[in-house]
Amino acid sequence: METIWEQVKVAIKERIPRHKYRMWIDPVEFKEMKEGGIVLSCPNSLIKKRVQNAYGSLIESELARISGKACSLLLEISEREKKRKKPEKIPEPDPQLSLPNVDIPKSAGRILRRDFTFDSFVVAENNDFAYSAARCLAEQNDPNQSSLLLLSETGMGKSHLSQAIGHHILSKFPLDKVYYVTAEDFMNEMVHALQNHSIEHFKEKFRKQCDVLLLEDVHFLTGKERTQMELALALDYLLDAEKKIIFTSCYAPAEIPKLNDQLKSRLSNGLISGIEPPDFRTRIKILQKKATEKRIKIPKSVTEYLASELMENIRQLEGGLIGVSAKASLLGKRIDVRLAEGVVRNIVQQKTTITIDTIKEVVSIHYNITVKEMTSRSRKKAIVWPRQMAIHLSRKYTDQPLQFIGKSFNRYHATVLHSIAAVEKGLKGDAVVRKQMAYLCKKLESGKF
C-alpha cells in the first residue's frame, strides 16, 4: 500500500501547483492500513488540517482510481511530533532584539503583534502562494530559500505574514535571534549610531547578531544612498551566513526610484510573492474570522453587505466590522444592514466625487497658490510641499494608477513615489503636517469644495 501512496502523490503533483504540493502533500507519509482505509502521517496539526480540508477528497479519489477500490482516508500527527519535547528555556541570548531607542520588555510577543500568526491568516487564491512561501521559510524546510519579498498594496496582509514568520520561528527555534524593524527604523538607528560614534556596534548587530531579519517597507529607502549601502552590506553578511530575511514592500524592486543596483539585486535575488486584493468570497471569510476572534455576533446579511461595499483592503473590512459593532453597542441597537449602511458611508469617503482636479483646487486654496503653479516645474518649497500633499491625497482618494497621477501633475512615476513617501514621513513625525492633512481630508470628505 505504501507503493500505491507514492503513486497517488505523483498523480496529485500533476494536478495541483508545485508550491502547494511541496508545502502540503510531499511531507505526508504512509503509516498503515486499517479497516479498509489508509492511515497517513502528517508532520504537524496545521498540515493535517489543511490536507484534510483542501485535499481529502482528491486523495480519496486518486486512491480509489489507482488501487481499484474505495479507500477511506485517516490522517494522524506523526509520533515524532507528539514525542518532541520543547527545549529547556535558556535566559540568554534574548531571541528577539529590541527596537532602537525603545524600552520594551524582553518578550517577542511585545514587539510582534500577538494576533499576526499563521493560524489567524485567512488563506485564499489571492494570497495562497505568499502564504505557502512564508510557511516554507518559517519551517526552514528548504535550505535554498533564505529570503522572501512580500509585495502588496497597503492593508493586504503582508505585515501579517511577515510577523507570522517571526512568531513561528521563535516558537520552533527559540534560540534564533529575530529582529523585526521597518526600513525607517533601520535608517534612524544607523543615523543615531553615526552621530554617537557607535557605527561598529550597529554593523555588528545586523551582520553577526541576527538570525532572522524582518524588514518592513523597503520602498521607504528611495533616495537614501548611505542607508541603502549599509543595508546591502548587512544583507550580504546575512545571506552568506545562511540567515533568513523577509522583506515587505508596496512596490517591486525595479519600481522603487533611486534604489542602487546592489540593493536592488539583493531584494530581487530571493523569492518574490505578491498578494492580490481579496475577492468577495475571501472578504466574507475574513469578516467571519475577525468576528469570531473579536466575539462579535453579526448576521449573514450584514457580513455580505460589508463584503460587497468595502473592497479596498483588509484594514477597511476590519474597520467596518468594528464600526458596526461599536455603533450597535453605543446606540443599544441590534446589528442590521440599515445600521451598517451608516457606518459604510463614513468609511467609503465618496471616492467617485473626489477627483484629482478637486484635490488640486482644495490644496491650492489652502496653501494660497494657483493650480498652474502646482503643476509647474517650480522647485520652490512653497510649491513643492503643496504639490506633494496633493499627490498623496490623489493616491488616497482616487483609484487612478500612479502613472496617471504623475501625468496630472506633470511629473514622472518616480517623483510620485517620492512625494508619497515624503508626506508619509511627515505624518509620522510632524504634528503640523498631521493637522494640515486632517483639515484637507475633512474638507474633501465634506463635499463642500
Features:
Rossmann fold; Helicase, Ruva Protein, domain 3; GMP Synthetase, Chain A, domain 3; three-stranded mixed beta sheet; globular; 8 strands; 449 residues
Describe this structure in words.
It is a single chain. This protein has 4 domains: 2-82, GMP Synthetase, Chain A, domain 3; 112-274, Rossmann fold; 280-348, Helicase, Ruva Protein, domain 3 (Orthogonal Bundle), CATH 1.10.8.60; 356-446, DnaA protein, C-terminal DNA-binding domain (Chromosomal Replication Initiator Protein Dnaa, Chain: A). Helix content is 57%, strand content 10%. It has helices spanning 2-13, 18-25, 45-67, 79-83, 108-111, 128-139, 158-172, 183-195, 199-208, 225-240, 261-269, 280-293, 300-309, 314-331, 337-348, 356-367, 371-374, 381-397, 402-408, 413-429, 431-446; strands at 29-34, 37-42, 72-77, 147-151, 178-182, 212-216, 244-249, 271-274. It has a 5-stranded parallel β-sheet, sandwiched between helices. Strands 1-2-3 form a 3-stranded mixed β-sheet. The protein starts with a helix and ends with a helix.
